[in-house]
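To: structure subgroup
Subject: Chain for Friday's discussion

All,

I'm putting the inputs and outputs inline so they're searchable in the archive.
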Amino acid sequence: MPFRATLLYTLVAATLTIVACAGLEKSENVLSPTIAGPIPGVSIGMPTPLDPKDGKNIPVGSQSIDLMIQNSPTNGQRPLKYLFEVASDTNFNTILFSKADVAPGDANRTSVRLPEAIASSRTYYWRARAGDGANTGPYSGFVHFNIYTPIVIDKPIPQLPVNGTTLAGLAPSFVIGNAPRSGPVGAITYTIEVADSDSFGNKYAVWSVAEQPGQTRLDAPAPLPQDKLYYWRVTAGGPWSNTSTFRTPVVKPPTPPPGPGGSCTSPKTPLGVLECQRNKYGHMNSAQTVAFLRASARDINALGTQGGPWGVLVKTSGAQCDGYSCDILCLGNGGGQIQRDVLIDAEGAQAPIWGEPMSGGSIAVRPCEAP
């Protein structure tokens, strides 16, 4: 009996020792799936969001979206897996997308793709964190991106005047088929350019008009020179329309008012010519002013002492007389590079002068018509 008791005690003690040793080995194996609590001394850092971030704007048509992080640092031996979250608010109270157990990718980068397109015209916030099954690291700082619907404005359509048609008068009425558009487009303004060639290097006019329902109309605020072919195009802020053409009619020159006829070539100076022609009129209206300018330019050219040819300056905006400057003669048929005042600008006085020449960048270069 004493022998048997001693043997039994020895067997029980040996068994307990074996079990205890087995449990110790399992608890020291950090890769064991039975470990659920934190492992002392293991640290997992925050991942770093890489893309999209910093308010990146993503067109609604460019989805799907990949969320990419730089992997978390860790001193543990267990493999990490990642949790990604997307929310509509910075507190992540409303989580729109969540994906856990994402295996780390290559090159110290990990990404996950959103499974479907998300709504436009909104800002989204996302973050990530890593865990090893026993330890969990902190969330990264959140970053944000925007989904937007691009604004696309197509070409407007010139409707009138087109195909080189001759106008009834010198001031055209433009009719524009409104530009097709998509996206959150606000108020649209159309810009019309009128030039003497399809290169639009020499523009006669640039006018703007707010969009009207269906089609947009602009009655030109100033006339254009007569008997010319014009090219015009229009934009709504996007591409230019196709180019269209029209022609201004020949307008019968105004009939000079009663008074002394003939030329003023007896005076041998430009001022003498101007005074002679001015004496033919009383208070001049616009048509008479243009007739005075043309006659004065013709007679100054006849002197042969001032170079030439002098002509009348085209002016289609601001203060003007039937599409011409009311008080300036210009030198040359090209671009009116040299100009002279020939009338004092005081209302009602209109006394003739032969002012100092203006040239260079201080003047507007406009066409100069021969008299």
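Points worth raising on Friday:
Residues 1-30 form one domain.
The chain has three helices and 22 strands.

D.
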